[in-house]
Amino acid sequence: MMRAISFLYECSHPKMIPKQNQINQSMSNSLIKKTLLYCSSFFLVFIAVLAIELLPVQFAKATALYNRVMKRDVRCSNCSQLFPDGTSTHELAYRGEGILPKQTLTALRKLERTGKLVRVQDKDYYYTATMNYSAPLLLPKAAGFLDLLGQRYAQKCADRSLSYVPFKITSMTRSIESVQALQQENKVAIKRSPHLKGKTMDISYTAFSGQQAQLHAFISALSELRQEKKCFVKYEESTGCLHITVR
Questions:
Q1: Per residue in 95-127, pLDDT tens?
Q2: Could you tell me the pTM of the whole model?
Q3: Which residue of 1, 27, 61, 74 has the fewest C-beta atoms within 10 A of its own C-beta?
Q4: Structural domains of the chain, count
């Protein structure tokens, strides 16, 4: 009898604790959702800021790789007429300046430690490819030329309302041994290469594949600098690059 009375009482007076637990649980879930939303927003902002800092060079690398895989064609219009300077012409730039050819890449790196050569690293203007037959080292004058070229090219892009695409440097200073090794793979490589002396670099025009307008802007900037007697340039269609020696 007493159990029956107790049962009827509990039915007519439901406990509040389970309901309160439900409210607490709901509030907890809401707080968790808000926290996750806040963290996600913060993470997206962080990624956006990071992208702004890194995108120009990284995007250019990714685009160049994609275009190479897709085998997109790229044309360097009038480059053979604009950039005809042969090896003997490039040699003129080394009268009175330049380094003596070194036997090994290790010997070239020693010149970096003494300050004779400087290391060229990725910047907003350009990026360097992986180099198997050269070191990313140049005489300070030549490294400064790369910045000048980047500035002039950037201005061309701005004048034409184009987004800036960093250019790709594929080769810089070589050693006697690395030239010999390169000759085994590249038939146009020569023994007395201007790359041995510290002011010569190769810039890939094929890396602009799919971005022809930017390539035209880059060619215009480089052509101007050549006309201003700041460099010699040879168009090398077989290697897809522009062979440049700073004057």
A1: 989 999 999 999 999 999 999 999 999 999 999
A2: 0.72
A3: 1
A4: 1
